[in-house]
Amino acid sequence: MRRSYAMRKLERKHRRSAELLLVPMIDIFTVLVTFLLMTAVFSRTVILELKLPTNNTSIVEPPPGLELEVIVRQNLVQVADRKTGPLATFPRAGADGPYDLKALSEYLQVVKGKYPDKTEATLLLEKDIPYESLVQVMDTMRILEQRQGLQLVQAELFPDVSIGDAPETDAPAAGGRK
Fold this sequence. Notes:
Blueprint: H1 5-14, H2 23-39, E1 68-72, E2 76-81, E3 85-91, H3 101-114, E4 120-125, H4 131-142, E5 143-148, E6 151-156, E7 160-165
Parallel strand pairs: 1-4, 4-7
Antiparallel strand pairs: 1-2, 2-3, 5-6
Helix pairs in contact: 3-4
């Protein structure tokens, strides 16, 4: 049976608006948040604060004393003073061998013994040095790990490390022409 137009209009006028039930939505979000918190992986993040070189072009008279630089090249690691030049060179064991980090650490201990208040050093890298090598050399510069009995004790060497690009060498590249 068909209803009349007036009857339908009357039903629309008296119809109540639909209600929005929030309780089931809140229940779903509560379960979701609980699940996410229980399955979250809480990892320890280590943040290392680096002092990058500035583009300051003003000339400032450097204080007297050592300005330590560790230069990492493809075939060697070199410890130098910015004012006087190279102090020690540690060649790499083979073309793809590891850097001699033990000898570097021993030499840096000697330098720290002569300059105990010195905390800053500059790490200069040639192009295409792997990130892993950067981290290993930086860790060697920053801390010294020694065993005392059954404990591993860490001591600071030069914790304030700045990073930059190594100066170009005067020697031509292998197989290259000048």
